[in-house]
Amino acid sequence: MDLAATSNTGDLLERLRAAEMKPPIEQNMLDGWETVRQLGSGSHGRCYLMRRPDGSLIVHKRVPVSHMRPADQEVAEREVNILAAFSHPYIIRYHKAFVRQGQLCIAMEHAIGGDLSAHLQELRAAGKRPSVEQALDWFVQLVLALHYVHGYKVLHRDVALKNVFLGSEGTVKLGDFGVARVLESTQVRGSLACA
């Protein structure tokens, strides 16, 4: 293992310890949150755009896990908490995950531009395409995000345009990984991408 990977692992472990010390989100912490609209749904659950009391927007993904054994629910929650410990400009930031009322609830960063697949379809419908420079910028950003994730020995396993989201100022952010792999290991099929 190289020194950089060892350093990354140490940083991740420190952030995970800090996350474990935080109290779990209780329903009253969601008081004052307003549902703006549903962003998407799939066989794994639904995503909602939420407005917090401070006016900021966040995505709230709700994945039914009541069919899973408690031990499998804990594994799914742990997987998402590992993702929450990631901190990279080209990765969707997961804020918190918790299991409540038979659902795995994940609060994460809202990518204002939606997913790259829908954006490219809109461009194509308008007879346009991204410039070569823009496409290369996006490619480099995704490679940097994957390099960061691989430094923690984590695999995304579903890098697709629907899982790449547009942030501000033309940046892209890799998202929607981890949860589907855990759920598929419990015989659930399908996916949900809506960060």
Largest sheet: 5 strands, antiparallel
How large is the count of helical segments? 5
Which residue ranges are poorly predicted, with pLDDT under 50 across at least 5 consecutive positions? Answer: 1-6, 23-28, 180-195
Spatial order of the strands in the main sheet?
Answer: 1-2-3-5-4
| Outline type | globular
SSE string, helix = H, strand = E? Answer: HEEEHEEHHEEH
C-alpha-based Rg, rounded: 17 Å
Strand content: 15-25%
Helix content: 25-40%
How many β-strands, per DSSP?
A: 7
Class from helix and strand fractions: alpha+beta
The average pLDDT value, as a whole number, equals 78
Distance between the termini: 33 Å
Verbal overview:
This protein has 195 residues and is α+β, with helices and mostly antiparallel strands. The protein is 36% helix and 23% strand. The chain is built from five helices and seven strands, in the order αβββαββααββα. It has helices at 3-21, 70-84, 116-125, 132-151, 179-184; strands at 34-42, 45-51, 57-64, 94-100, 103-109, 164-166, 172-174. The strands form two sheets. Strands 1-2-3-5-4 form a five-stranded antiparallel beta sheet, covered by helices on one side. It has a two-stranded antiparallel ribbon with strand order 6-7. Strand 6 and strand 7 (172-174) form a beta hairpin. The two termini are 33 Å apart.
